[in-house]
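Researcher: Quick sanity check before group meeting.
Model: Go ahead. Protein one:
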Amino acid sequence: GDSRPLNSIRPIVSRIKRGAIVEEQCALLDDEILPQLAAEGIRFLKRADWNVAQREWIRDFFFREVMPVITPIGLDPSHPFPRVLNKSLNFAVELEGRDAFGRSSGAAIVQAPRVLPRVIRLPRELGECEYAFVFLSSILHEFVHELFAGMKVLGCYQFRVTRNSDLFVDEEEVKNLRAKIQGELPQRHFGDAVRLEVANSCSEAMTQFLLGQFNLTETDLYRVAGPVNLVRLMQVPDWVLRNDLKFQPFTPGIPKALQKCHSVFDSIRGGDILLHHPYQSFNPVIELLEQSANDPQVGAIMMTVYRTGTDSVLMQSL
């Protein structure tokens, strides 16, 4: 096939690894961000930091909220390697011994369902500070042995795989484009793997095993000293009621030509209007779509919607 895209990507990947961007991310989190948050009474507790009361509460949380929704998959001839969702949190577990059914399995995969929060807040009376959090990954590491009765856990390593999410649709050959896209969407979660992130403590044997399962090479491997998905931390500012630690809210403006208009159509008849997002409000676009949807003289609305939500006002108009 055409190797030009691959030839373009390789130098980029090499530059990322040579510049240690992933390592720099983790170092900034551990050495700067977390200590500064701790100084403000916002702590992320590692397992070694848990006191007796905290550990008991976390243990109860594991048995009450985590264990009922997790099904570990032992890797043996009767249980092949499971399908791993795109960018989902997973754990590769190295085992020794036999389970309750007498089966011997040297490894297992534990998939963390997306219904589980990746960051959990401890009750204030237990946290010893205003805000105390623990990572779901820390909880699973601490109590993963509870999932494998009678067996010894030799190692537990978090990993995440990124998959190709492109949709393969030939518009010229498809009669019903909408139906075809709907059929393709579920497969986006299981496209070809393009990147593997593993904990930097992951054993070499397990790392090579995972690379083999996803048909990847060392070039596609990223070792991470911390959570494999830092984006999950973006929810924390919503929980912390400390406006003094946050940026001042920004209110996007509206162009002067649209400030007092009743019809966006009337305004744009007078000339083009440039909107610069996100510095200017998206509301004029929504108003244009609403007015277009309700205008009997509008025969069709053609646009590309890249992302939307379940409660999107824009999609209601379309």
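Researcher: Fine. The other one?
Model: Protein two, sequence then structure:
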Amino acid sequence: MPIVIIFSLTQMTLLATLGSFMGAVFGGENGGYSKITKDALTFPPFIAAIIAVILFLAKIQLPGDIAYFLSFSGPITTYLALIAVGLGIGVRFSLVEIRAALEVVGIRQFLIPFIVIPVIIFSGLSQLPASILILESLMPPAVLTVVYAKSFNLDSEKAATIVTVGTLLLLPVIFFIPFLFG
């Protein structure tokens, strides 16, 4: 199985289990093991990843017409997610929120890649998987952060600010990515 699929499944599993647990603990929700297990097993992106792995291992491909129709969902989902984040920022968007967001973004977009890049370099991975993993480590917090915050009664406006600030800080880096992986 390709390393990128293993990485994505591991990341999704951690997000579904630890993310649900942390959301339940810090959001005041009941974080019992049965709820965490249920949340992990019914987490839609996790289910989609498992189905994708099963289809991949069984060498089943979607018919061309269905694949073509589903290919439109990516851009539409991206735009809808960005609109949702924009609506999530609300009226509290201020310098105080930006400072708080910079702490999270500093860890997510600077400290994590600083740790991950040497590990990947010494791992001996070929260029394509290494490039994908490095690119993943540079990404800002996902829009899913806002969904988690909202569903666990956490500060979804702050989460939206973190996603927005992280995305804006990544924009100048995008121009240098081809030089990193060239």
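Researcher: One line on it for the slide.
Model: Residues 140 and 167 are 6 Å apart (CA to CA).
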